[in-house]
Amino acid sequence: MALFLFSAFRFEVGPDWTGYLNIFNIQRWSSYLEASTRSEPGYWILNQFILEMGWSYPWVNVFSSLVFFAGLHTIAKRQPDPLGFLVLSFPILIVNMPMSAVRQAMGIGMLCFAYIAFSEKKTVLFVTLILFGASFHNSILVFLLLVPLVGGQYTRNRLILSGLLAIPGVVALASTRSAEVMQSRYIESNTEAAGAVFRVGILLATGLFFQWKLKGTWRQLYPDEFKLVSIGSLIMLTVVPVILASTVIADRFGYYLIPIELTIFTRMPYLLQTDRYRRFYCAAPYIGLLLMFAVWTQKSWIFQLAYLPYETWLFGFPSGSRY
């Protein structure tokens, strides 16, 4: 609850505050019908709903955080250490998503629910959740490529076959208008994501560690979630080549994998019971993320400009506010 309030009721905090305010003001002169015809209509419809209710722009962040934390909390509850899961989610996932990229944060919230549907082999629900999440941020559509793997047994041959079947889907997604915009905005413009190398590096290390150290034990102790986490760890490895083309695309896609990454982190103490280096392995995620967060908060001018000082409107808007 504290993390939700911290994120939802922030006031003029976050790099994209003004950008989403502009979207809110654009929708002010539109209607539900026009909102439904725009790209990522769910987010525009949300803005229209808030306008119809007579509420101000900061309420957008409340609803965005509500969707994000609902999904994140659902996955956290399934962990043996829910508090550890949420603590580890703060330095990267929470600060950079619901406190900044609110549309993708809503997509991640829906993806968390979709991950659970995947683990429970509920194909229709998985697809429905992905499509609903895409109404807020259509980059989540790439996870439809996992549909052939939702049901059935998880074998190497099935994984290869699903990979082959995914090729037409990749081609189709690459030819969409959103893909063209992404290529123009992030690849051709040479836009860089600060810190992306470190965030993607953590994903790479996590994926490799799972494949090297945890895979066999995980299959025995957590068979229901093995397929999801195993596939997720493999996808973590594929993000690395993407960073050569665009740090922004690799970074943005990597955020979708962080819930799986955090699941791996919080299960490590239970998977490495007899390992002589258990304490080191289990402490590494906490120490690494803490150091990364400390350096970022002290050295990044973006953080200093966008996140500080932190203000909240939980008890009312500051005097002189335009909202």
TrEMBL record:
InterPro entries: EpsG-like (IPR049458). This is Putative membrane protein. The keyword S-adenosyl-L-methionine does not apply. Keywords: Membrane, Transmembrane, Transmembrane helix. The chain crosses the membrane at residues 56-76, 85-118, 124-147, 159-176, 226-247, 279-297. It holds the Pfam family EpsG.
